[in-house]
Design brief:
Blueprint (H helix, E strand, L loop, with lengths): L2 E2 L15 E2 L5 H12 L6 E9 L2 E7 L3 H14 L12 E6 L2 E6 H6 L4
Parallel strand pairs: 1-3, 2-3
Antiparallel strand pairs: 3-4, 5-6
């Protein structure tokens, strides 16, 4: 029971064949969230997609309970304070460049030429 991760190469059931669609700075945050969700003894729910959207982590599942969605929401909020590039905590801002939003620290924003 709990979280299932079954990448579907046909992309008909989920988009996990793409992996985590974000920069590496969020990987520890995502892994921590997954570690928590696999321990939840609730009916099965499936991970459908993990990605960055509008500078925030989005973690999509099917069949989650209110408890599961509350945990996911907390981690999505955490992502707003962690640099997507390097993982720095709290030195970040949402930055806009070329029509895209990213959450980056000053050092990574300068390195990537984001304002």
């Amino acid at each position: 029971m709990g979280l299932k991760i079954n990448p579907d190469p046909t992309l008909k059931n989920n988009l996990m064949a793409f992996g985590w669609e974000c920069l590496e700075g969020w990987y520890p945050l995502i892994q921590e969230l997954i570690d928590i969700l696999v321990k939840i003894d609730k009916p099965d729910f499936e991970l459908l997609q993990v990605k960055e959207k509008f500078g925030i982590l989005h973690f999509y599942i099917s069949n989650g309970t209110d408890e599961v969605y509350d945990i996911i929401s907390k981690y999505e909020t955490y992502s707003e304070h962690i640099c997507e590039e390097c993982g720095e905590f709290y030195g970040t801002k949402n930055r806009l460049s070329h029509g895209w939003l990213k959450t980056l620290c000053d050092k990574c924003a300068e390195k990537l030429n984001w304002k």
